[in-house]
Amino acid sequence: MDPSCIFWSLPTVRTPGDDVSNVRSRLGQTRVMLIDMPQMLREIICELVSGERDLEIVGEFDDEDAALQAIDGCAAAVVIRSLNESARADIAYLLSKAPHLRVLAVSGDGRASSLYVYRPHEQMLGEISPRRLLAAIRDQLPEDLAQTARNVSPC
Question: What is the pTM of this model?
Answer without folding.
Answer: 0.66
